[in-house]
Amino acid sequence: MRFFRRPTEHGLTAYLRLPGRIAYARVDRRLAVPKLLAVGVVPVKSENWSDALSELQDKGPASLVLSPSVYKMRMLDAPNVPADELRSAVRWQIQDMLDFHPDDGTVDILEVPHPEHLNHARQIFAVAAPNALLAEETAYAVKAGLNLAIIDIIETAQRNLAARLEKPGRALATFSFIESGSLLTLTLDGELCMVRSLGVTQAHLEGDMDSVIERLTLEFQRTLDHFDRQFGGVPVDRLFLIPSEKVGSLRDGLAGNLALPVEVMDLTHALDISAIPNLGELPTPCFHAIGAALRKEDTKP
Fold first, then answer.
1. Class for the domain spanning 166-266
2. CA-CA distance, 83 to 156, in Å (whole number)?
3. At residue 93, does pLDDT exceed 60?
4. Is 232 helix (H, G, I), strand (E, B) or coil?
5. Would you identify the CATH topology of the domain 71-127?
6. CATH class of 1-70+128-164+267-301
7. How far apart are CA 123 and CA 3, in angstroms?
8. What are the pLDDT digits (tens) for 24-74?
9. Residues 164, 294 contacting (CB under 8 angstroms)
C-alpha cells in the first residue's frame, strides 16, 4: 500500500518496523507549514527487512521509531547534579528497570515542563535501550541504503503530532492504539508531561464497545486527575483520538462520558496534506510515522 511518493522533494523519512510491514512517512519541515511528501505501508516478505527498507531510500535523513517493547521509559525527579553528569546519574538511577547492564545501553532524557507556579521537584523522562538492538537496527538501515540519523520512540512521535495542534498554555491529551495496546499522552507547549500505556487494544473494539468505553473513561479520568494534582492550574484543552477503525464510535462514547471535548485528530490545518487524499483512512502507525517525521531538531533535511 503506497499512498504517495515524489522523488524530487526530500525531507525527513520516519518509519516503524511492525510485524510483516513497515509504516513510513516523509515530511519536508523546511516550510512554514510542513509538507507531507509521502506516507504508506510497505509489506515485508520472509523477514527481509533491508529489502523492504530500501524502498524508502531518499537523499534526506531517516528516523526509526522503536517499538515500545524494546526500550524502557520512566518518569523521575531530576537528579541534583551538574548538567554534564545528568545522564550518568540517571543511568544508575534506572538500573532496576533494565534487563541489560546499564553500561550496555543508551540512555536519553526528556525534560518535563515545569510551569513557574509549581513547587514540586523538576521531573524528567529517562529512556533506555540496549546497544545491541540499536546496532541491529542501524545495520538494517545501512544495508538498505538509508541515512539513519535519528532513533525515536512512539511517545515523542505522538508528542510531535499534538504540538502542531496545541494552544499556548493549555495541555492536550492524545490517545492512540499501538501494537502493544494503546497510548495516552499529555503534552504542554510542545513537550511531554505524562505518558500512560494502556492494555486496551484495537481488537477490543470488535467486542463490547460499551465496556471498552467505560474502561477507557475510567483510565482517562484517573490520568486527568493525576495531571491536575501534578500540574494544577494548567487546563487540559481537549482529548484527541488518532484515527483508527471505529474511531467515530469511540469518540461518541467518550464524549458523552468526559467533561472535556473529544475530537478525532485532523491534521488538515497542521500540515500541508494537499498531495495525500483521505489521510484519515491511513492505518494508525502511519500517523506515528508522520509525528516522528515532524521532529523539530535540525537533522539536515
1. alpha beta
2. 22
3. yes
4. coil
5. Dna Ligase; domain 1 (3.30.1490)
6. alpha beta
7. 40
8. 999 998 888 999 999 999 999 999 999 999 999 888 999 999 999 999 999
9. yes
